[in-house]
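Researcher: Next entry in the queue.
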Amino acid sequence: MIKPGRLFLWVASKIYGMAVALRNRLYDLGIFRSHSFSLPVICVGNITAGGTGKTPHVIYLAEKLSSIASVAILSRGYLRKSRGFLKVTADSTTALSGDEPLLMAQNLPQAQVFVDRDRVNGIREIMRKEPGIRVVILDDGFQHRAVRAGMNIILTDWTRLMTRDRLLPLGMLRENIRAVNRADAVIVTKTPGVASPSAREEIRRELMAAGACETIFFTSLAYGQPLHLCSNSTGEIRQTTSVLLVTGIANPAPLKEYLESIAGQVTGIAFPDHHAYTQADIGRISSAYDSLSGPDKLIVTTAKDGVRLKEITNIADHVRQALYYLPVRVHFIEDEKLFLNKVYSYAGKDYQNF
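Model: Structure for this entry, 354 residues:
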């Protein structure tokens, strides 16, 4: 027997799916207008609501493209308190820009970062105010169909493939899986290092059966040494280290699994994605840290959480001294040159020259 709560989610999912399908159909028929631009616009997005590792991939793409052209990233600026078009710098705040755009600005001095909920207006403002920009990366804009991006890259998490998910609110899909046919490339993120070529090929066939193009790539996340939240000095995690993992991201499981492979003990405190930390949260974190046994202990968080935690001034000194974030980079399992050649060709350059 179906539980009432589950039945409600199923009905809500069906209604949501019909509404999204109608919206997409109106764009397909040209009743809702999609805007094209003279600049190359590369959209990095997903069908799943969060948890795919989008921000590290946007940073990776911006780093690569910055070697051939002036790059701008345009994000919505989720949960920011400001409005309209805004340039984000390394000195901005999460209240003004949102956490992910601020993280990008702090990690990409060679690129420019902007926020605007109206992506069409945002691109127009970039072109008007920054005429030297040659490529725009649209952060999380796959469902923003008012912009007709010249290249769409969508991400899906190996541990929660979009082909095995359901529409919101029953699952985490923002739109029907058939939308994958709008993508020019699909990246399967967080691929385990032990994943065999045959396992990857099975995933590739599953995605193509759902309508994905043949250009499917696999990446993993490579974690660096922990960096202190305030000084950026390096820390060390040993088999004797007790780690308190503090996260406010959609899917902290891969990070926790990684830490468990290198630390003696890992205790996790998980908050919702984009969590705004309160004084009560800091008290909870402090108590959990104090309860860890032994002198060799650290608090580890993500780079995205770090930009929010850094803004909190009244953290106890001994807790602040123990607070580190773990930098992460994108690693292609294979075919990185093929991916870059596709991106650079669209941007108007030949990868072989770089």
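Model: The longest strand covers residues 216-223.
Researcher: Noted, moving on.
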